Amino acid sequence: MTGFLPYGRQTIEDDDVAAVAAALRGDFLTTGPKVEEYEGAFARATGAAHAVACNSGTAALHLAALAAGLGPGDAAVVPAATFLATANAVRMTGAEVVFADVDPDTGLMTAETLAAALARAPRDHTARAALPVHLNGQVCDMAALAAVARAKGVALIEDACHALGVEGIGATPHAQSACFSTHPVKAIATAEGGVVTTADADLAARMRSLRSHGMVREPDAFTDRARAFEDGEANPWWYEMPEVGWNYRLPDVLCALGVSQLAKLDRFHRRRVEIARRYDALLAPLFPRLRPVPHGNHPHGWHIYAVLVEFAALGTTRARFMAALRAEGVGTQVHYIPVHLQPYYRKRYGDLRLPGAEAYYARCLSIPLFPAMTDEDVRHVADSLARLVGSA
Questions:
Q1: CA–CA dist 60, 342 (Å, integer)
Q2: Which domains can be identified in the chain, with CATH numbers?
Q3: 275-306 burial, b if ≥16 CB within 10 A, otherwise e?
Q4: Gap between the Cα atoms of 308 and 27, Å rounded
Q5: Residue 3: its pLDDT value, please?
Q6: Gyration radius of the chain's alpha carbons
């Protein structure tokens, strides 16, 4: 690749374009056969029993939170180091958010920080769920989190938006459901889109209803039988709405893109791993002033390659550091501003001190990582970082 390197971007190839064009020429643009095909392919790719496609990762989180029974009078734990959507999906149900601190070096919620957050949950609310986030693509210790959750009677909903492609993520052995995003910078792209996976057939059915206005069309579910049936047969136009839902459907044309992209998931993930390993080697000499977020041998989706930079020790600020990299054609980003610092949540819950999340935020920086990067691109990014760290 030549030119400016963003921190992430989609990889769209000719067969993806052809798949979308074929769908555009078909009979369905909204909900059609590609939705079911995509859901089946996604379930197979993740090892899930059921996959429910929707129109964004935020919608996926909201559907999963609703299916978990969250509502007014409830509370759910969310790590502070995440995107706004993880917390907002809880509030969208009417439940309250309890922010958990995270490990200062990985940004991940731990069993200890989950337990501490549950201990701070408001006494007049029922702690019903926790949403661990596989930040940057590194997988939380789900077994340890599940042990805490079981002891407290709390359901786990995995925010796996960064972790598509990691073996076992989506099969939900320790969680009620897992939520994914197919935004352009993620592992695969459907322009916008999300998926919830679950092992629970009833949960999947409820989420499919909720994503389409809360409607049901199955005759066995109809309650107004006098209007629904004539001569013992269900009227073909009949539907019922037992609860309020949303229009969270993912169009057929975007599901066609998703089917095409899923066929490349393994290839995309392998390339992300190769790039990460190159960065590991090239950036090692910059320790301790700059170092990769520690990942050891843990499973990783490599959605983001994040580094920790000691900006003060380098005599600079993150803004100046990012501007200098941009001048060299290297794009960077910060993932994320801790959500508990946002004005809405500060007004609602007051000023909360979470030192792990704030320490992680103070040092983190995301550098370019996407499958179309060449080895020369990776070297350019590493050399640019070395020049900055060495000259600071």
A1: 22
A2: 14-264 (3.40.640.10), 266-391 (3.90.1150.10)
A3: bbebbeebbeebeeebbbbebeeeebbbbbbb
A4: 50
A5: 86
A6: 22
Cα gap 337→354, rounded to integer Å: 12
Q: Which amino acid is at 248?
A: Y
DSSP annotation of 140 reads P
Catalytic pick from 34, 152, 186, 264? 186
Strands (E), the chain: 50-54, 74-79, 96-100, 126-130, 155-159, 177-181, 194-198, 229-230, 233-234, 290-292, 305-309, 364-367
What six digits make up the tokens of 348? 């609602």
Is residue 286 scored above 90 in pLDDT? Answer: yes
| Region at 16 (left for phi over 0; alpha for psi -120 to 50; beta for the rest) | alpha
pTM above 0.85, yes or no: yes
| Angstrom distances, CA of residue 321 to CA of 9, 164, 385, 387 | 22, 30, 9, 11
DSSP 1-37: --S-B-S------HHHHHHHHHHHTSS-SSSSHHHHH
Nearest in space to 304 (alpha carbons), one of 106, 28, 70? 106
Residue range 383-392: average pLDDT? 87
* Phi/psi of residue 268, nearest 5 degrees: -60, -45
E runs forming strands in 55-133: 74-79, 96-100, 126-130
Distance of alpha carbon 54 from alpha carbon 39, whole angstroms: 10
**Cα(138)–Cα(113) distance, integer angstroms:** 17
Active site residue 34: no
Per-residue pLDDT reduced to its tens digit, 231-280: 999 999 999 999 999 999 999 999 999 999 999 999 999 999 999 999 99
Q: What is the pLDDT of residues 291-334, one digit of tens each?
A: 999 998 789 999 999 999 999 999 999 999 999 999 999 999 99
337-374 pLDDT tens trace: 999 999 999 999 999 999 999 999 999 999 999 999 99
Distance in angstroms (rounded) separating the CA atoms of residues 152 and 39: 32
Q: How far apart are CA 9 and CA 80, in angstroms?
A: 25
pLDDT at 391: 57
